[in-house]
């Protein structure tokens, strides 16, 4: 009987050696590995609109969000805890303060809401050389790429060998700033104060905003059933006294980790409410819009969720910190 569930992410762009490694591990330990795959429609839309290698031009975050972060969210949603292999010495720019155990700052567990998922990092204080000593002594299977100079291994287009003396993380997204070398699986490691907020306001027109000079933070909440509201759009919505139906709108900032954490729940809400008469929207309320949002839209902190009833001009602010799908749906159903 397998006491612990083991899963991995298959992005569709891994090295052949990595797939062989998956098979070797499963056979060596006699375990079943559950593979999480990205949404085919989202991958297709990204490749059709930007090509296969857009991350070299506008950063890796958008591709990683589709291929890695969203599948991970689905996997974690059914759990109360998960175990990672993060170490403090893996990435001084983002992992130097990784604790052994924490409440996951970015993802939700089975009970919903921030704080519902425990994250264990048992080798956080172990150095890389100690890990390798153990692997050799215990005859643990390793990826064949390690013997070819690859130390930190991700997707094939975004991973390369490092030279002697280079840090292991320098082989990942080598064209980006070292302070942002997280794909999103451990995005809580990137401190909010490290983000140059002023640069986030200068979007490049394709949904990516610059961070730390050259890495990017992609826009969030991407369901096709969700409506992105402009300043004029939300002003018109707020002025209406008789709408064709109620609206639920999130006021957000794409760099906010609490907004990022509820992305999966909110996208799922939009899908569940499709065709119900309730419109689901988003309004980016940071930057030049923040003063307006605070004065006119009850913005306190990110995210702020508002329900605009069908026959009232005054929006109702969602009062809870629980942002799972069931809680949001209960709020909508109570007021619609």
Describe the fold and architecture:
The chain is built from 11 helices and 12 strands. It has helices spanning 16-29, 40-50, 55-58, 61-76, 128-137, 197-200, 231-239, 257-261, 263-273, 290-296, 325-335; strands at 6-9, 33-36, 81-83, 101-103, 118-120, 208-211, 215-218, 226-228, 247-252, 279-284, 304-308, 316-317. A 5-stranded mixed β-sheet has the order 8-10-9-11-12, with helices on both faces. It has a 3-stranded mixed β-sheet with strand order 3-5-4, with no helix packed on it. Strands 1-2 form a two-stranded parallel ribbon. A hairpin with a 3-residue loop joins strand 6 (208-211) and strand 7. The longest helix has 16 residues, at 61-76.
Number of H/I helices: 11
Structural class: alpha/beta
Report helical residue fraction.
Answer: 25-40%
Q: Strand count, sense and closure of the main sheet? A: 5 strands, mixed
Low-confidence stretches: 192-216
The total count of strands amounts to 12
Alpha-carbon distance between the two ends: 47 Å
Q: Name the beta content range.
A: 5-15%
Taken in chain order, the helices and strands follow as: EHEHHHEEEHHEEEHEHHEHEEH
General form: elongated
What is the mean pLDDT?
Answer: 84
What is the topology?
Layout: E1 6-9, H1 16-29, E2 33-36, H2 40-50, H3 55-58, H4 61-76, E3 81-83, E4 101-103, E5 118-120, H5 128-137, H6 197-200, E6 208-211, E7 215-218, E8 226-228, H7 231-239, E9 247-252, H8 257-261, H9 263-273, E10 279-284, H10 290-296, E11 304-308, E12 316-317, H11 325-335
Parallel strand pairs: 1-2, 3-5, 8-10, 9-10
Antiparallel strand pairs: 4-5, 6-7, 9-11, 11-12
């Amino acid at each position: 009987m397998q006491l612990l569930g083991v899963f991995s992410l298959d992005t569709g762009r891994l090295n052949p050696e990595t797939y062989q490694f998956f098979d070797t591990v499963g056979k060596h330990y006699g375990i079943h590995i559950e593979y999480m795959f990205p949404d085919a429609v989202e991958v297709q839309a990204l490749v059709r609109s930007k090509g296969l290698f857009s991350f070299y031009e506008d950063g890796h975050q958008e591709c990683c969000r589709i291929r890695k972060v969203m599948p991970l969210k689905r996997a974690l949603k059914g759990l109360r805890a998960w175990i990672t292999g993060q170490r403090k010495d893996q990435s001084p720019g983002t992992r130097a303060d990784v604790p052994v155990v924490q409440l996951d700052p970015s993802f939700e567990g089975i009970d919903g809401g921030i704080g519902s998922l425990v994250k264990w990092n048992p080798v956080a204080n172990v150095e890389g050389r100690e890990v390798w000593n153990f692997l050799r002594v215990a005859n643990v299977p390793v990826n064949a790429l390690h013997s070819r100079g690859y130390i930190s291994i991700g997707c094939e287009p975004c991973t390369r060998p490092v030279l002697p003396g280079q840090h292991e993380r320098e082989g990942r997204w080598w064209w980006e700033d070292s302070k942002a070398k997280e794909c999103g699986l451990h995005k809580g490691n990137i401190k909010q104060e490290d983000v140059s907020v002023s640069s986030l306001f200068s979007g490049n027109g394709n949904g990516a905003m610059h961070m730390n000079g050259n890495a990017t933070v992609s826009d969030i909440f991407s369901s096709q059933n969700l409506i992105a509201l402009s300043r004029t759009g939300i002003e018109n919505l707020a002025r209406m006294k008789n709408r064709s139906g109620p609206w639920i709108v999130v006021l957000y900032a794409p760099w906010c980790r609490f907004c990022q954490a509820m992305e999966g729940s909110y996208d799922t809400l939009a899908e569940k409410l499709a065709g119900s008469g309730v419109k689901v929207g988003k309004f980016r309320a940071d930057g030049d819009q923040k003063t307006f949002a605070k004065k006119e839209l009850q913005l306190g902190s990110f995210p702020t969720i508002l329900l605009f009833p069908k026959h009232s001009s005054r929006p109702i602010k969602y009062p809870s910190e629980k942002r799972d799908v069931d809680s949001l749906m209960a709020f909508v159903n109570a007021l619609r």
